[in-house]
Amino acid sequence: MKARLLPGVLVLLSCFAAPRVLAQTNTEINAGLQFNFSNPGARSLALGGAFMGLADDATAAYTNPAGLVNLSRPEISLEGRYFEYKNEFLDKGHANGAATGNGLDTIDGPVFKEDKDHVTNLNFASFVYPGSGWAIAGYRQELANFEAHSETQGAFFTNPDGSTSRFFPVQASVRLKIVNYGISGAVRLAEGLSLGVGGFWSKYTQTTDLTRYNLGDINNDLPCFVTNTACSVADNERVDGDDSTFSFNAGLLWKISRAFSIGAVYRKGPQFDFTTTATDSTGAQVVNQKGHFRVPDIYGAGLAARPTDYLTITFDYDRVKYSQFAPDHFVDIFGDAQGNPEPQNYKIDDGNEYRAGVQWAIPMGQNVLALRVGWWSDPDHKVRYTGAQIDEQILFQPGKTENHYCGGVGFSAGQHFQFDLGIDSSSLVTTGAASAVFRF
To answer: Rounded to two decimals, what is the model's pTM?
Structure first.
């Protein structure tokens, strides 16, 4: 049973059944999260991430390593990014219907609270050395750099028997970071056809803290952190992840003609271990177990068309294996009404990402100014609950497909320096990127 308050009775968590994982357990903060793993590069970002069929700069080492043979000079690439994450959490109101009018239960329907978090990082750095028909690259990439915080007052809801319950007030935070250190290589198999493979060592760190607070009177009391009074803790949960592992990617690129190319990629997502602990209202530890965090596998294809020397059009399709999260890697802490875990009732469907971009190059003597726009569709990949528990149904509902609108500019100074800016905006996340390339 999800931790919650019942009329006149405080339902405490005296035991937990299994470890937990970000966006893979039924703790409250995970109900509001939907993050994605984007490709590196300000240029790629401005094109909506549609880069598999183009793959003609250093970021190909991760996006499509076969494209490394497109590079004719050794180069160093650096990219910085800014992220603004928006996450909505159920805060108050009567989540599944009309309010009773008792005490604070006066708002019909759910009221959500939006949290905004900001992260700035060095997202990508690489060195590429091309040869005759081959190339090799080394890189560092921050695959994920994510923060979220929530503070909820505790929404009311109606049970199937007509009684009213209330969720515990919660304060919670999540910090996730995954850094890849990789080496990729590519060879030209035939005229216009290249193969690339890469391996990367992934370093994962995660900290999640969640505290639920008691209410003396569930109908009339506000949380202690709202009234600035002494808090009574119902329970506390914590996740500490610090692990590393190896994974790989592989790609093909076929330049059918000077004006048309096709790429294909498979990327194996790494899996990490973490430790979860939980304490009850007395501070006694009731959980100390291991769990797993899984990055989904991705495979896809892309194409790039150059109808003129100045115009480039790109399109990508990605299949993202979000179903690897649940139920196989999803952990139900609270279980059903009898406390039995039911991970099979938590679902995430595999997602289809569609990406498109357009670049217009404007010659300026020995230099080039590039204008770019892009779009991509991010499918719903929130965890949803399909079982009978009403509180789980309220918290873990389907999300929606997010449309991302992108744009940016680039400037190439001769053959030795390139600078790019890109932005990607949706209702959930805004990403800005700046990158520089130095060629020798």
So the answer is: 0.86
